[in-house]
């Protein structure tokens, strides 16, 4: 597990491209046969990928978190973006099709991931944050969710937002998690953009049309923007003070995860286009 530390807006004013990428971009999220995790001190979120092939995989973090087992004081969100897989939660095995999700509450002792076929493995994206209360484990299928349909083709931002871990679907302490799919012909996400000082966010971008597809992820204070060029299946850490918006060379999908002191999805501070620089 790699650790990333927090930054103030002043920290990044003179960052080179390489420094910006090192601090905010996670270049390898999914590695075949491995668990790849990043711990950010922004609200102490852990994010990463679990890609089981021939053998099952289990996240085991005790000494690193000062606990006896990974979810002793944490909750966990999972979404599968790969082939057919399984999650075994304290001995109970669940099928995980592509786009299936799961909310797993604190005090769950064992979460074991496996794939149905090694040559088409599941790709479990996970996000975990501190939790103060145990809520029930809930399996979430994309078919259960009525998406928010927003944007329009004229502004290149027509998209569907699927809220997986959200008060409409299940209870959580502070974790929110969802899946945004841009329609063909659309490439902008969340423009006009926003910040939310009361919570941080992380994105993982995927479902790119080709290796040449890239997303220009725009971050920073609204009046002093920076950008990261993001490839398929890479993640970006977004501090609470930063905008988080992007434009792709074609349409794409991403999973967003948020945590902080406010769990209201619409708690956003909108940024006027004239204030962007």
From TrEMBL:
Residues that hold Zn(2+) according to the record: 194, 196, 201, 244
Keywords noted in UniProt: Isomerase, Metal-binding, Zinc
Catalytically driven reaction(s): 5-dehydro-4-deoxy-D-glucuronate = 3-deoxy-D-glycero-2,5-hexodiulosonate
Any GO molecular function: 4-deoxy-L-threo-5-hexosulose-uronate ketol-isomerase activity
Cofactor(s) annotated in UniProt: Zn(2+)
Pathway listed: Glycan metabolism; pectin degradation; 2-dehydro-3-deoxy-D-gluconate from pectin: step 4/5
InterPro entries recorded: KduI (IPR007045), KduI/IolB_isomerase (IPR021120), KduI_N (IPR027449), RmlC-like_jellyroll (IPR014710), RmlC_Cupin_sf (IPR011051)
Highest rank taxon of the organism: Bacteria
EC number: 5.3.1.17
Cofactor binding annotation: Binds 1 zinc ion per subunit.
Family: Belongs to the KduI family.
PANTHER family tied to this protein: 4-DEOXY-L-THREO-5-HEXOSULOSE-URONATE KETOL-ISOMERASE
Function: Catalyzes the isomerization of 5-dehydro-4-deoxy-D-glucuronate to 3-deoxy-D-glycero-2,5-hexodiulosonate.
Protein name: 4-deoxy-L-threo-5-hexosulose-uronate ketol-isomerase
Source lineage: Bacteria, Bacillati, Bacillota, Bacilli, Lactobacillales
């Amino acid at each position: 597990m790699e650790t990333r530390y927090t930054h103030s807006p002043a920290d990044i004013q003179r960052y080179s491209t390489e420094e910006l990428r090192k601090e905010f971009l996670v270049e390898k999220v999914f590695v075949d046969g491995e668990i790849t995790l990043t711990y950010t001190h922004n609200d102490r979120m852990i994010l990463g990928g679990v890609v089981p092939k021939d053998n099952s995989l289990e996240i085991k973090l005790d000494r690193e978190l000062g606990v006896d087992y990974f979810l002793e004081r944490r909750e966990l969100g999972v979404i599968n973006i790969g082939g057919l897989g399984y999650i075994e939660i304290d001995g109970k095995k669940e099928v995980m099709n592509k786009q299936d999700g799961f909310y797993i509450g604190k005090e769950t002792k064992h979460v074991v991931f496996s794939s149905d076929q090694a040559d088409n493995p599941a790709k479990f994206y996970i996000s975990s944050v501190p939790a103060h209360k145990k809520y029930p484990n809930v399996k979430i299928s994309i078919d259960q969710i009525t998406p928010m349909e927003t944007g329009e083709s004229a502004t290149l931002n027509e998209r569907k937002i699927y809220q997986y871990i959200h008060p409409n679907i299940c209870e959580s302490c502070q974790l929110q998690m969802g899946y945004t799919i841009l329609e063909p012909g659309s490439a902008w996400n969340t423009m006009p953009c926003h910040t939310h000082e009361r919570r941080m966010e992380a994105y993982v971008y995927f479902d790119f049309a080709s290796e040449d597809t890239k997303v220009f992820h725009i971050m920073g204070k609204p009046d002093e923007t920076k950008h990261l060029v993001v490839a398929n299946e890479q993640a970006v850490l977004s501090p609470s003070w930063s905008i988080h918006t992007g434009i792709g060379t074609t349409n794409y999908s991403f999973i967003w995860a948020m945590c902080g002191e406010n769990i209201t999805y619409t708690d956003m501070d909108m940024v006027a286009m004239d204030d962007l620089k």
